[in-house]
TrEMBL record:
Pathway(s) where this gene product acts: Nitrogen metabolism; nitrate reduction (assimilation)
Keywords, comma-separated and alphabetical: FAD, Flavoprotein, Heme, Iron, Iron-sulfur, Metal-binding, Oxidoreductase
Record bears the keyword Cell wall biogenesis/degradation: no
Listed name of the protein: FAD-dependent oxidoreductase
The organism's place on the tree of life at top rank: Bacteria
Cofactor(s) the protein requires to work: siroheme; FAD; [4Fe-4S] cluster
Domain FAD/NAD(P)-binding: 6-288
Organism this protein belongs to: Pseudoalteromonas haloplanktis (Alteromonas haloplanktis)
Annotated family: Belongs to the nitrite and sulfite reductase 4Fe-4S domain family.
UniProt keyword Transmembrane, yes or no: no
Stored Pfam families: Fer2_BFD, Pyr_redox_2, Rubredoxin_C
Residue span, BFD-like [2Fe-2S]-binding domain: 424-472
Limits of the NADH-rubredoxin oxidoreductase C-terminal domain: 323-387
Length: 497
């Protein structure tokens, strides 16, 4: 009897766990595959997307994506506090900091990323923290209990989430950003200006174009931050959230190819420069790009699992859409595609209602016939509609400004029937319109049923409205003429997820 193929997964974040979900769902009984998970943290995978809810009452157990019983039921071996420190590529073994060695046939690096802390003198003081893990959140809570003022260094997405956490803990909260605007990656100057105004109105003081040069003892608070130009700001607690860096140290130490600016180089099947080692998620560099969202990581996990089990070259990773919709401190923000209108010939159409606190911009190609980007701040009700135009490259049947101007004729809206069967509705789990329709044909009657079968809307949740629309539309058709839903063969319920 031949021995089992040994698959070892290093890292048990959201993407690492999704890989485990995918490969165990594909393994048929008695096919001879053994999956081992090595988690560097003291706990198994948890939801980092909703990490800030830890400060509104959710516990570590509430955020957990799995537990020991689930992995046991899946016949997955797992070890916590098992940080890998050595890879022997010749013997195909990994060794943890505790000295335990594991043999592998295929190794999956899902080590994620770590917070970047700028090289500021004084950054290593006791109440200078980062915002990344549940352990970090515990440290923040402890520090906040003896603090009155808190400062976040970094005004990106994670920085604003960290600021919200400090505000919820009752601290006078400041955000310090080196760039001239907040969320410079996702929104343009106009959106950044409104975002700053809204967050300031909520009681968080925002300082842009500020470079921290040193952290010293304070006069009234625990510390004093000294900025270029002579300005200072006193605080008791400092949270660094100035971006992330790929956790690629294992690749560097054991001669796997890495990018010039970091990241483990992978091909379209998520293989590294060693064909027996894969990398997925925020540690991976594909086409000189690192994807900092969970949905691309999930896509990599699925592709790597299929390639390991079946050597399947048909499924490949060709990049991912980086559009996102979120709510920061109650402020709605949406970013789609080429939000900064950088493509040659790009045209922008802007609606800016300063009284209502709403900023909207759509970006089209030069001809104005295709939507290639959008920015929404203060009102993201148009997000789902705009996203489908962008993802499916649908022709605009009306003037582009009608998509966002409330005083224009009714907006040109993508109907369910306009969407192709392969339109991706849930980006996190790559669930298409057709898959949702098939779930309804298979007996799903509501969102809960569809979630159980397809996993649609179980990630970030931003697709809920569109999923519900497809469910309602599909239910209506099944009552009339079921054959109109799709010309494709009905997929068994067990295969949809």
């Amino acid at each position: 009897m031949s021995r089992k193929q040994r698959v070892v997964v290093v890292g048990n974040g959201m993407v690492g766990h999704h890989f485990v979900e995918q490969i165990t769902s594909l393994i048929k009984p008695n096919t001879g595959v053994e999956v081992t998970v090595l988690s560097g943290e003291e706990r198994l995978a948890y939801d980092r997307v909703h990490l800030s809810e830890f400060f509104t009452g959710k516990t570590a157990n509430d955020l957990a994506l799995t537990n020991e019983q689930i992995y046991t039921d899946w016949q997955v071996r797992f070890f916590t506090n098992a940080k890998v420190t050595d890879i022997n590529r010749v013997k195909q073994q990994v060794t943890t900091s505790g000295g335990v060695t594991f043999d592998y046939d295929k190794l999956v690096l899902a080590t994620g990323s770590f917070p970047f802390v700028p090289p500021i003198p004084g950054k290593d003081r006791e109440h200078c923290l980062v915002y990344r893990t549940i352990t970090d959140l515990d440290a923040i809570k402890h520090s906040a209990s003896s603090s009155k003022v808190g400062v976040v260094i970094g005004g990106g997405l994670l920085g604003l989430e960290a600021a919200n956490a400090l505000k919820q803990l009752g601290l006078e909260t400041h955000v310090v950003e080196f760039a001239p605007q907040l969320m410079g990656v996702q929104v343009d100057n106009g959106g950044g200006r409104l975002l700053k105004d809204k967050i300031t109105a909520l009681g968080v003081q925002v300082h842009t174009s500020m470079a921290t040069e040193e952290i010293v003892d304070g006069d009234r608070c625990r510390y004093k931050m000294c900025f270029k130009g002579g300005k200072t700001l006193e605080t008791d607690l400092i949270l660094f959230s100035a971006g992330i860096r790929p956790y690629d140290n294992l690749a560097r130490e054991f001669d796997l190819a890495v990018g010039e600016r970091g990241g483990i180089v992978i091909n379209n099947h998520c293989q590294t420069s060693d064909q027996n080692i894969y990398a997925i998620g925020e540690c991976a560099l594909w086409n000189n790009f690192i994807f900092g969202l969970v949905a691309p990581g999930y896509a990599m996990a699925k592709i790597a699992a299929k390639h390991i089990l079946f050597n399947n070259s048909d499924d490949a990773f060709f990049g991912a859409d980086m559009s996102t919709k979120l709510k920061l401190m109650g402020v709605e923000v949406g970013s789609i595609g080429d939000a900064h209108a950088r493509a040659p010939g790009a045209r922008s159409y802007v609606f800016d209602d300063q009284l209502a606190g709403v900023y909207k911009k759509v970006v089209t190609n030069q001809a104005g016939t295709r939507l290639i980007g959008a920015v929404l701040v203060g009102d993201t009700s148009d997000y789902d509609n705009l996203l489908q135009y962008h993802l499916n490259d649908l022709a605009l049947n009306a003037a582009p400004e009608s998509l966002i101007f409330p005083l224009a004729p009714p907006p040109d809206t993508v109907s369910i029937t306009d969407l192709p069967a392969d339109a991706v509705i849930c980006s996190c789990h790559q669930v298409t319109k057709h898959t949702i329709e098939q779930a309804v044909l298979s007996g799903a009657n509501d969102l809960v049923d569809v979630q159980a079968i397809t996993k649609a809307c179980t990630g970030c949740g931003s697709c809920e409205n569109r999923v519900n629309c497809i469910i309602e539309h599909s239910l209506a058709i099944t009552k009339a003429q079921p054959q109109q839903l799709s010309d494709e063969v009905l997929i068994p319920v067990t295969e949809l997820a």
